[in-house]
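re: ur question from earlier - yeah i can do the single chain one, its not a big deal. heres the input i used so u can compare w yours
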Amino acid sequence: MNKAEAKITKILPPIQRARLLAVLLGNGLLRLANFGGGALVAFYLAQEREVYGEQMLAALTAVSSGAELLGAIPFGILADRFSPRRLLVWSAILGAAATQLFGLSGGLVFIFFISRAFEGLSAAAVTPAILAHLADVTAGKRLIRGRIMGLFELSIFAGVALSSLVGSQLWEQYQATAFSLLALLYGAVALLFHWGAHGVQQSSRIVFDNPLDGLKQVWADSRLRRLAPAWLSAMAILALWATFSPYLMVQTQVEGQFLVGRFAPTEVGRIAFFYALTFGAGIVIWGEVLKTVPRLRVMYFGLAGMFGTTFCFYLLNSSGGWSDELRILIIVGCVLLLMVQAGFAPAALAYLVDVAGQKEGRGVAMGIYTVLLALGYIVASVFGGNLIARFHFNGIILGSILLGLICFLSLIFLSWQEQAEAKAALLETSTQ
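and the output i got, formated as tokens:
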């Protein structure tokens, strides 16, 4: 064992690393079960489309997303009031009950809505709880915090990426029984959370009589207020690409836009899988870099990577008369820049935990993360829909640039504030 490894082992003992791995694995499996359950609902309604119609799927999706959005802050407050471990276990149990309830609904519509609302609440509960837990695990251990936040993002990404594949296979093999199998997976997640989150001492924090005071304290922190637009913009960019690019790539071809209508659904699936591998590799690499490089600097790098990736896609979309060799060269550049872009999320999360980790309102701050994620998808659907209707694939590119500029301005203001605080602290030290 070299000195660096010995230092990491000393910071995080082997048993604690094993428990941390169990929590992160549980998070990935919970996301898989959550999004996989959504896929099963879609398959179930498609099979019964003459009874329910497409509007039922849209309504159930809205209920699930709305419950997650509305539940994020209240569950963040609960994460401040109670043990994160308890909330993690109950989030998995709630997800199991929701999934099993849909499988036993017998076609009753009001059961559909109750089930999807519970599923959304399960997703809302897990994020503030697990981030509060990770704040406890990394309290006083800034060296590994960035890496752990990268692994957290990677666990979410892996779970979501595998959910459609797992959901489709379960439905093909077991039909409605697949809901019960996913409920069992939630049960396994509850056991992982129960064991993995055991024995972690909660970091000392100020305790207020009124939990809403924690929300006031979080919003009073100008660093978090200035981070919020950057985070919202980044999530909206991600949602733009995730929502509209597969749709456009299989649509009718548009003159002058090479990426529109040129791919079969199976090809889009393979592209999405390769994208997931590339982005995941970038997250892992940046998790190591965050041990030594400031969070804000990594966020700037990630944003620069986003602008570079967007420019590469613009070139590809304009490459109708170009040679295959030139397109391959652009794709290589796009892959490298995408790995640079992947650094933004773990850096922003690590920054969030650095700022809020020792506060009473830290759970609320972690809940705000979920709120901004959900709002990012709402912004993308409203703002992006109009751009895509007018500019097709170039609408995604234009939307990404506009949102990226908002993100950049937010980071600039955040940097100015940090510099001002550092100068004030230095001046105070020199006068003492």
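Residues 393-431 form the longest helix (39 residues). not sure if urs matches, ping me
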